[in-house]
Structures are given as structure tokens and as C-alpha cells.
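Quick entry between incubations.
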Amino acid sequence: MSNYDAIVVGGGINGLIAGAVLGRKGKKVCIIEKAGSFGGMASYAVDGGPSLAHALYNLSPLALKDTGIDADHATLTGQQIDTVSLSSDGNHIAFKEGRVYWNDGTEHPQSQAWRELTHRLKTYGGLLRQLAEAPPPGGHSASLSRARFAEMLRLAKLGVGLKKLGKTEMRRFLQVVLSNVYDIVLDDLPDGPVAGMLAADAIRGAATGPRSPGTVFNLIYRLGHGGTITRPAGGMTAVVDALVEAARAAGCTMLHETEVSRILVDEDAVTGVLTADGQTLNAPMVLSNVASPLTCKLTGPSVFDIETTRRIRNIRARGTAAKVNLRLKDASPLPGLKDELKGARLIYAPSAAYVETAFNPAKYREMSKAPVIEAIRTELPDGSHWLSAIVQYAPSDIEGGWTQSALDQLTQLTIDTLDRAVPGLRDHIVGTQTITPDQIQAATGAPGGHWHHAEMSLDQLLTLRPSNGTSRYAFGPKGLFLCGAATHPGGDVMGLAGRNAALTALEALK
Amino acid sequence: MSNFVDPKLGLIPGPFHTKLAEQNRARSWYDWAGYAAPGILDSMEFEYFALRNQSSLFDISPMHKYRLAGPDAVEMLNRLVTRDVRKIKKGRVGYAVWCDEEGYVIDDGTLFHLADDDWRLCCQEPMLTWLHDGAWGFDVAIKDETHDIASLSLQGPTSFAVLEAAGLDIAHLKPFDMIQVEPDLMISRTGFTGDLGYELWCDWGKAEALWDRIWQAGTHQGLRAIGYEAVNIARIEAGFLTAGVDFQPVHATERLHRGQTPFELGLGWLVHFDKGHFNGRRALLSKQHTPRSLLIRCDVEGFKPAQGALIYNGRKREVGHITSGIWSPTAKKNIALAHVRMPDAQRASKLKTEIYTLEEGKWDTRMARLTPVTDAFFAPLRARATPPART
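Done. Structure below.
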């Protein structure tokens, strides 16, 4: 029997950060992970292939700071990568340093419009970031408390920030923030690969199409930390290693290959956890990085109110992004891509309309016949070369299930689609791995294999994330908190959910 | 929650409809959960006095009945209701209330502990979806038995004699006991009148045979079929609450905070904080000492029924209203159940109610003093005596 101040169930990104934050505040913390290694969904990989996540764009400097990691950490600064929007006619479009170029290096006519639009969205992202960097507003702290004062200050700052935008821009912000990305992008740009790239970024990981409401918010969310995309040095594994290191340095006990079989409660307060191998670990605070329905089952439904269990059962989390890893024969460049763009993020989304059309089958539990793809080339430590691709839409609940033939079809569609824009790519491929959302769910526990654990839609944001009544991390009995991507502000290897949860838990149990 | 009645369908007949229709000289049917139920069969006064002096038969089949069975039934029910159901032994019936997450009462009802891991919940409001929500994560099967089980309420001082005459041996039944007296008949010593009485439960299809048997046995005991209006007077005398009248079932309210906690309804004795978590427990812990209003029983000055009247404190400030008010023929008092805001409910000496009266085309108001009382207005010893008296 061991005694801790806090136990974190699930050693994914948010679990590691929550543990490290608590550890650095002087708490004796134990982080428990079921799998053989930490990192959860971000670093999940099969048979030595590339990890699920392949780039960083939203990792919060604030979360890193509270975890004790220098934002200039070599792994995290890594290498900034440009984006290429692939075109079937070979005239690809490159986005770099805030400008848009044709394949031949001349500036694209839509460069200015794209720059202005993304700049605006980034400004909005900066405004909204302060909402992400704290628990959602509306806590029940006493009106004269420090927490309430801080909350008022934060909201006031948002108000002042909005005001500072100027009347026209403020009106525009309020107009677009809840809108759909299709309309907003096509207001400023003709439909084509530039608009397609923005539409694709707005729906990545989501069960929405560019015409779905709230997709502008998704794009703003993505650009919340400036929109710079980084390939971490050493890959996602190195990021996880850095976080594990930080948690260790903060004094956390790290248990992997340990499964929590029960979260223990006595007199309506958490007392610890019971592991599958029969250990009892005591702590007055348990943070669960596991999805809320699973956390509920681990704790026993009788300690939650019926409304709570009803709401968490109805959280929408339908993963639509599959991972297709294409093993390349060698380091040789891909046909049609300039050498300087060798490591770029390749987007296949020739138009916003294409992205919307790709979404249509997903509504009816089918995979896209012409999918939207984000692919990044990576070299793994073993010297193997891969094209790591996120392919949409491949819904977790596909009609008939993810049979071998469905998997093969998805792999083939991915290769065919990429080969259309990069003719000859097919000849570079020597092996494939296809990981569908249901596999991701089975391996990591993320509901629906959704990388935010819960759809980032307007009805599941802020005070409604993951559901009404559970938005401030506390979940049922005293001392139990949720800290996963399903909580505010969400996933994307951002780390704020874990950090906010840890700070809220500390405040609550003070 | 009001049931929607399809105008094309109209009210539907219950299992005793033929029997009731034969006697329904007043033809006063009302809508009870979609069924045609008698408000009055011939005259309310006759029916009421039969209930208090002889015995009465009232069809309660429209009540919602749910069967909850399975290894986790006790655990599931204990999370659902505020009282500790582990204390309701097999063969016993328990009155219970259940609350939402804010601690507001959803409904009240009776829990029948039929056998190990086998229970029946009997209540006024439709509760199936709520029970299904409450059963998630528990090994419990839920069945809506509302339309499978017919039930009759036999109440009054001669009700035991009627059953005896029908050849049913239930002399040993104490209040809140129940027994499967025959393969097709369960009898519980329960009721909604505060008097000696029983409730009889059988298959829907065997309802008429049961009616005939009881009716025949009641020939020499003054048995009378009655409607709801007589029952309503009896239940107010007993101080019992009606959903939608004396409290607002919170699932049927649309405005925020119109619900009431058990503490506000005088049902705090049904809340067992020491049994572990139950729905609304955390909210109730914080609300138990700060009721916003209280449901009080009071004597009303004069003889005019005060139903619906507003209550004032010293004529100036409106502090509540009467939810149920009648002239009690047995207590010989003008009585009422009332919601009164705090803190006025606790210093009630100055409470007055403004009763509207209509006499031969002339409306008038009169201010009547309210005197709070603590006990039931009528609680005869015969209701509890075991074995019960025959007259």
C-alpha cells in the first residue's frame, strides 16, 4: 500500500502534464499508464511505424512552463515545416513564412488575401487563448474570492481585447466565430487549393465538413498558438520523453503497464485506486485522463448523479481520422516536389468543395472515396522512411465495421489519391500501415478514436465541455477530476486540459 | 408530467371500466394518465362517508408501475431514491421520494419489495426513461407494468371484513406489509386515505373477476365504488401530497427552480444521508438547512375551503398560497396544505389567507387566520391496529 497526494490515471500528454504540474506544486504524485509506454494517443504507433501525431502546432507554452519545460527545449523547437497544397496538375502551392507561392517560386495571386485572412484568425486565436488557459468561466467560487476575481479579470481582458479590435473588426469577429469555414474562406478567396487547405485544417480530426457550423472556431483554435507547425526533433516520442522527464523531475512516480481496475471512494470522497494486479494506492485526489464514461465505470456509477451519467453517455465523439503510414523505399525525393519542400506538410484538398464532398459519405457511415489527406515525411531512428498520413473521412462507426477489405480499400484510396497529385509516388511505397479510429479507441481508450476525445463543437465547448455540469474538471465525488482532451479547452497535443485540471484540483482541495 | 391525450383516441377504458361505467350515474370521467377515471360516481358526500364509515373501492390502475429486477436492483434503487431501501425488508412496502441532481423532487411513490432482487415502483408520473437512465451501469432489468397490472384500493373501517368475507386471510398484515395471497392476487396494506385499507394487485385480464369477488363480499359491509373527489378529501385529511398539486414534479417544470426539496415538503425524514451517494445528495447536503419555503398543514379560520388562496403575513406581504384546501367532514375543521416562504413559515402566527367566495352571483373575499398544525388532521387508530377490527 502506497500513499500519494494525487494519482493520475492515464499517462497521455494531458496526464503527464497534470502530474508534472501537481508534482511541481509539492504534491506526491503517481502517474499510472496501462500501456507499456507513456504518451497515449500522441505517440501510439504500431510495429515501429510513425506515431499517430506527427507535428506540433498547438502545444501550449503555458502548459510547458507549469510543467517545468523550457519552451526553447531542443525537442520542441525542432524544425518548422512549411505546408504544400497539392494539385493534380502538378502545380503545387507552397505556404511559407506567411506567403503563398507557386511551385516555380513566384508568389501566388491569392497570397495577400490568404495572409490577411489567417492573420485575422490568428488575432482571434490570441484573444480566445486566454479562455483556453483557464478553467471555463462560471465557477461557483464565492463572489469575493481570488478565483472569482481572476475570472472576472480574464473576461474583462477578453472584452477589452475585443474592443481593441475596433468596431468593424469586432463585429466581424462576432459574425465569423460561430460560422462555417466554407462561407468565410470563400468570402475572401476563390475556391481552389488555397481555400481547400484552410478548409482541410478546419475539419481535421472532426466529424464536420467545411459547411458545418463552428468550423471557423476549429480553425481559430488550431491557430491559437500562432499557427507555426513544428516537427519535433526526434519525433513525437521525443516530446513524450521530455514530458516524462519533466514529470520525473517533478517527483512523480511513474507506473506503466499498470491498469487501474477501480477508483476507490469512501464517504463521497476519493481515497485512491486499486490496480488490476491488486495494489491499493491511496490518494485524496485522482485525476483521470480516461474518457468520462470509462472513469464513471471505474468509479462505479452509483456515486454519480443520473443526469451526469446521462450527459456523459451522450457526449459526441465520433472519430473520422485514420492514420495511413506509407513506407518509402529510400530517402529519394518524391516526384514533382522541390527539394526544399521535401519535409513539408502535404495537404490534399484541391478545393473547399472537395473537402465538403469528402465529408458527405461520413454522414452515412461510409469512408470518403476521395479523401482529404495531410501527409508528412518522416525518417525514424531505425533509418526507415515513411510518409505519415492523416486520412479523412474514415468514420469509427463505418457500416459493416473495419474489416480487412475495408482497411485495404482505405489504404488503396489513400495511395491513389496521393498518386494523382504526386504521380509515381506509388513506386516509392514498399509497405503500408492503416490505423482506423476504432483501433485507436481499442489501443488508447479515446472514445471513437477521436483525438479530442469529444467533438469540438459549439455544444461541447467551454462551460459545456465535455458536458454541462462537468466542465470544471470536478467529476462526482470529492477529489475526482477529469483531465483529458475531452475537457476544456480540448486536445491537439496542447496540454492545457491537463494543466487546467491540475490547477483546479489544487484549488478545490486546498 | 401531463400525458398527452390524442383527441381522436380520447380517454381509454381501464381494466375496471365496465364495472365503473355501470355505477357511474354522475358520468363524471376525468383524465388520469390517459384513462377515463371517475371523479364522482353518484355523489361525492356518499362516497366520502362510505370511505370513512364503511368501505370503498377505488380503481388505481392508471398509476405507473415499474418492475425492477436483477442483482443490482438494491444498489440502483438506493442511488435513485433518497431513503435507504436496504431497510425495506422483503414483503414490505416503503414510501419514497426521488430527486434530480439539484435535490428537487421528481416524484414520490411506493416501493414494493417483492422478492430478493425484485422490486416494484408505483408512482404518479411516467418514469420509464428516468429509470432507464438510472439503471445505466447496473445489472437491472426494467419493465413497465403499468398496463399489465390492475389495482384496486379498498379503504375504510370495514375493508378488512370485506376481504375476510371474500375468503382472503390477511389478518396478520401490518401497515406496509404485503402478501401474495393467491397465485394471481397480491394484497398490500397500503393506501392514500390515512384509514384502514388495502390495495389489491392482479393481472390486467383478471381485473373484472376480482372486482366481482370483492363487490359480492362487500354486500353486507356497505361497500361503495368511489371516485377521486372523495379520495382527495381523505388524502388531505391524512396530510398526503399529490404530485402537481402540493409539489411540482421537477421534470414537469419549465421555469428554473420551481422544484422543491424533500426538506421543503416536510419529507426530510425520507432523506438518508448516511447510506452513501444518491441522486441529488450533494445538492441536498447544501440545501437541507436553507429551505426557501415550507409545506405546512394548517387550520383555516371559518368554513370556506381555501383552495388556491394567497397567503399574507399581516395583510401586507404575500408569502405563499394554499395548495389543497377543504372543509374536513371528519375533523370538522377547515383544513389546508400550504406553501409558505421562509422565514414566515416558521413564525406563522400572523399568517392570513385571502379566500375568494362566490355567493349567488356575488364575489367577495375574506381574510382567514391560519393556524399551523404538526400532525395529520385525521389519523384513526384503526388504521394501524393489527389484527384490524371488522367494523
